[in-house]
Write a structure and sequence with these properties.
Elements (H helix, E strand, L loop, with lengths): L5 E6 L2 E6 L10 H16 L5 E6 L4 E3 L12 H20 L5 E5 L2 E3 L1 H8 L2 E5 L3 E3 L13 H9 L1 H10 L2 E3 H7 L4 E3 L1 H16 L3 H13 L5 H12 L3 H11 L10
Parallel strand pairs: 2-3, 3-5, 4-6, 5-7, 6-8, 7-10
Antiparallel strand pairs: 1-2, 8-9
Length: about 260
């Protein structure tokens, strides 16, 4: 399989999917989301693929966020559609995939990047990783499950703080919070993920798929629907217009509060 925005390597029942937009710090756009959906769907159906590792190209970013230029002029309806389609096509799709997906977080994982990592079944980070959900600095809320999965992983209070401050945390704090399972040097990141994947391949794929389904059932909620609606509503505010315009113009936002 050949794609414009991702690279795929396979060996010993393990597939490594690398998001490959280094000039954009691997930011997620519609085309990349579509490519990821296509390759993950195919790998999920491939009985020879027992584990999938998702990472970013280069050493600066896993995924630095979403491509803001694609939706800066969206309406409320467009915003809700963007969130719903992304959830179905990639984020919830990954979470419910029977094949285990490990996020190898190399560098920045912000906004849609952290949301992608959180949708994976667990995460390993390089020691230069920085993570956060900065969406409120753009006048919008975290989408793609960000408001749901972050509290599930690190607790409500810490998630509230991280989302409301639009701040970033380093790899060691992410480890202490339970957001990632391990932190290693960058050069050790893929070897450790591959080692963990190798341990997984020794076990029953059927049992693992059923375990994923059972674990996810414990977190079943309609919060994702509420998030989609709130995300879409953000696109009708003056704050969103100011936040995205300021971002694209590379200046500090002056939110009118409306």
């Amino acid at each position: 399989m050949n794609f414009d925005n991702i690279l795929l390597t396979q060996e010993d029942n393990i597939a490594i999917v690398t998001i490959n937009r280094p000039k954009k710090l691997n930011a997620l756009n519609k085309a990349t989301i579509a490519d990821l959906h296509t390759v993950l769907k195919a790998l999920g159906k491939d009985k020879n693929t027992k584990v999938i590792i998702v990472t970013g190209s280069g050493d600066k970013a896993f995924v630095a966020g979403a491509d803001i230029s694609e939706f800066a002029d969206f309406s409320e309806k467009d915003g809700a559609k963007l969130a719903r389609k992304g959830q179905e096509k990639l984020f919830t799709f990954i979470e419910n995939l029977n094949t285990p997906v490990i996020a190898a977080v190399n560098g920045f994982a912000l906004g849609g990047g952290l949301e992608l990592a959180m949708a994976c079944h667990f995460r390993v980070a390089s020691d230069n990783a920085r993570m956060g959900l900065p969406e409120v600095s753009l006048g919008v809320i975290p989408g793609y499950g960000g408001t749901q999965r972050l509290p599930q992983l690190i607790g409500k209070g810490r998630a509230m703080e991280l989302i409301m401050t639009a701040g970033m945390i380093g790899a060691n704090d992410a480890l202490a919070y339970g957001l990632v399972n391990y932190v290693v040097a960058l050069e050790e990141l893929l070897p450790l993920c591959t080692k963990l994947a190798g341990k997984i391949t020794n076990n029953s794929s059927v049992a693992i798929g059923n375990a994923i389904k059972a674990i996810n059932a414990g977190f079943s909620t309609d919060g994702y629907t509420a998030e989609i609606e709130a995300f879409g509503a953000s696109f009708g505010t003056e704050d969103f217009k100011e936040g995205t315009t300021a971002f694209l113009e590379k200046r500090k936002a002056n939110f009118p509060g409306a």
